[in-house]
Amino acid sequence: MNNDKKIRILLAKSGCDIHERGALTLLSVFRDAGMEVIYTGRYQSPEGIANAAVTEDVDIIALSDMTGSLFIIAKQVIAALKEVDAADIKIMAGGLLTDEDVKNLEGIGVKGNFGPGTSTDIIVEHVKQIMGGE
Amino acid sequence: MKKDGIVEFDRNLGHMVRTATQSHIEVKPFYEPDDIAHLDYENDLADPGAYPYTRGIYPDMYRTSLWLKSFIVSYSTPEETNESFKQYIAQGMTDLRLLADLPTQSGIDPDHPAAWNSMMCGGVATYALPVYEKMLEGLPLENVHYELAHCGISNFIYFHALLIAHMENNGYDAAKLRGNSINDPVRAKLVYASPDFPTHVARRVCLDHIEYSVKKTPKWKAIAPNGVDPCQGGMDAVKELGGALSLATAVMKDLEKRGTSLDEYGAMVFALDAESDFFETIAKFRAARRMWARIAKETFGAKTKRALQLKIGIRTSGLSLQSQKPLNNAARVTLQILSCVLGGVNSLDASSIDEAVGLPGYEARIFNLDTQHIITHEANIPLVADPLGGSYYLEWLTDKMEKDANEYMAEIEERGGIFECLDSGWLNGIMEQNRLKLQREKAEGKRLIIGVNSFQGEEGPINKAVRGSAYKVPTEQLRQERVDEVIAFKNSRDYAKVKQTIKQLYLDTKENRNISRAVVEAAKVGVTIGEFAGVVRLAYNLNFDPLNQIDAPGFIIDAIEECK
Which of residues 236-295 of B touch A (CB under 8 A)? Predict the structure, then answer.
């Protein structure tokens, strides 16, 4: 990847989950790490997230959810991305995750799934690694 | 380990890293009589049960009235929620807190497209009366304390109406309904960005609910300014206190304008947070009672004892609980419960040790109840009211929090009042500033969270078992069943009756009459939470759907046309 281009991330929440502290924390953490971050806010539809990802030309979508529904949400966002020919955008997930959720998410290509309290250094490192690997 | 095999020893490992409380109040190494020489016992403290109630609202405190032991109980289905309530009641639960899933709390039905991703998460999809009746089946209704703990302002008036409808349908006296609603328009927008109603609509519906409740369900306190969730969003204890007091003052002034005095309203209830900072939390509860008593007397000229009193309901901080080494949460929760008891609170909902992993499981909650039983019966903590009263440190800290909160409230007033500060984004700015400050302190090791940014260590079988017991979220199949159920329910209703109540609700909203009774009548014929919120929105010329994804159903458009 071109070192001049900053990594662009869309932080996204879908459905009616109100917990946004994790998303807001990462918003400042990614910015401090020199990345460009856009936060969708709460109550978004999967289609809205896919459209925002395309419009904002992001490299990664970071889904945040504390209801335990990350696998369900990720499937919908992936489907919505295909609809707008943007299946190349990478997805990662953070929030409430069981071991089974992580396995399921990895199975549909969502790499980088982080539970509450994960060191933000680990999350930033993951983003750099998957973007640097191209 | 060094090369020679001798363990490296650091005498300072685990030493203190702070000289300030959690809310950044700098404190001295010790306090002495001079620090509290300006306080006057009769004016500033007084005996428990006497104005300004710093030391508690009852003369014999817990000997007369032990704090209520509460939980929010709300699992995915009405059946398992009902079963859980019964199990906890048998184990000593005395305050039943009701909630709904997240779409319901946002004011939409399960068949709304935005509901799917969080449906039946955080609670039951209580979209209409039959679901509520199933959830409450066999539970006592008269003289039992309930709390409505939802987010959106649409929810409080609606679910209070469901309780009334349920009681009336089953021959109970609704006037004997006891409990409280959170019904806090500041929290709804500041913390949740609740899409159901914008602030001006939320303020009106909030007041309709209070006004109706004073007249028809006098043992129901229809507002409890909430400090818990602003704290979870980043506010500190001083701002929590100042925010709750500012809101209570603003709403009671609005209620006065409608002709109901504070003396008629009676005791105020606050829903406050029990954070990890032990003494700061105790001081906050004592300061809250004193400050409200003074406001009630000086601003509202309250004369009755009740109107001067603040009852404090607690939820202990969910945010303080960690998913790393979750067993440590037992220590956190126990200390938080203890601070509540030493602070003289009136009801207590303690978060559970597995709360950072998922919805609380049965055993984790029984641990909470048992902790409270142990504090009561083995440790004998509640024998004496305000046992820390007179402590140089605690009295200084109580006084300091009152002064700081008063300054914050004065600033809110200068900026046009609490609602202006909400809509201008100023409150959000304050919350964000403190949130970032805490985040930075944690990253820099100036605030240690054990097991997370310090003393991580390995997890053994006990911790792993806590993690493994997490409550599973509903599958997609269960969600689909709920969607099918709500559609079938809607189609089964008597549409002539439904339209009639919708017309009444629309006209009462539009023509500025109290909408509460219209909501009860609508609930009785099956109008759902989403339809109720949508009709109120239409009367304010807003889109039916708060999320702008669906159109108003045809029968609602027809009903409203017929009103014109």
Answer: none
d(CA B452, CA B376): 32
Neighbours of A29 (CB within 10 A): 18
| Cα nearest neighbour of B104 on chain A | A16
Determine the average pLDDT of the residues in B421-435.
Answer: 97
Nearest 5°: phi and psi at B483? -65, -45
Residue with tokens 């066999």: B138
What domains can be seen in chain B, in order of their start residue? 33-39+52-453+464-468 (3.20.20.240), 494-563 (no CATH)
Which domains are assigned to chain A?
A: 8-132 (3.40.50.280)
Of B399, B410, B282, which is closest to residue B37 (Cα–Cα)? B399
d(CA B334, CA B321): 12
The secondary structure element, H or E, covering residue A114 is: strand A113-114
Nearest chain A alpha carbon to B356: A116
Residue A134: which pLDDT band, with cuts at 50, 70 and 90? very low
d(CA B546, CA B553): 14
Summarize the confidence of residues A115-119 as an average pLDDT. Answer: 88
CA distance B217 to B160: 10
Query: Mutate which of A13, A16, A113 to disrupt the B interface (most B C-beta within 10 Å)?
Result: A16
Mean pLDDT along residues B412-441: 96
- Cβ-Cβ pairs closer than 8 A, A with B, add up to 88
CB contact under 8 A, A16 and B452: no
pLDDT computed for residue B294 by the predictor = 98
Has residue B278 got a pLDDT over 90?
yes
What is the 8-class DSSP label of residue B42?
A: I
Backbone angles phi, psi at A36, to 5 degrees: -100, 125
Structure tokens, B319: 């945010």
Give the Å distances, CA to CA, from B387 to B34, B274, B343, B384, B390: 21, 18, 9, 6, 9
For residue A115, the Cα-to-chain-centroid distance in whole angstroms is: 13
Could you tell me the pLDDT band of residue A14, with boundaries at 50, 70 and 90? Answer: very high
| In contact, A71 and B472? CB cutoff 8 Å | no
**Spatial distance between the Cα atoms of B95 and B347, rounded to a whole number of angstroms:** 8
Torsion, Cα of B227, B233, B234, B235 (10° steps): -20
Q: Does the ipTM surpass 0.85?
A: yes
Alpha carbon distance B464, B469 (integer Å): 9
Cα-flanking dihedrals φ and ψ of residue A14, to 5°?
Answer: -120, 150
Minimal Cα distance from B123: which residue of A? A67
Sheet holding B95-98, edge to edge: B220-221, B178-181, B145-148, B95-98, B68-72, B347-349, B310-316, B268-274
Task: Say yes or no: B322 contacts chain A, CB-CB below 8 A.
Answer: yes
CA distance A131 to chain B (A): 24
- The rounded distance, in Å, linking the Cα atoms of B16 and B29 is 12
DSSP string, B266-304: --EEEEEEE-S-HHHHHHHHHHHHHHHHHHHHHTT---S
Closest CA to A117 of B405, B157, B336, B329: B329
CB B382 within 8 A of CB B376: yes
Q: Rounded CA gap, B546 and B166, in Å?
A: 27
Select the residue of B193, B324, B470 nearest A117 (Cβ to Cβ). Answer: B324
- The span from the CA of A59 to the CA of A80, in Å, is 16
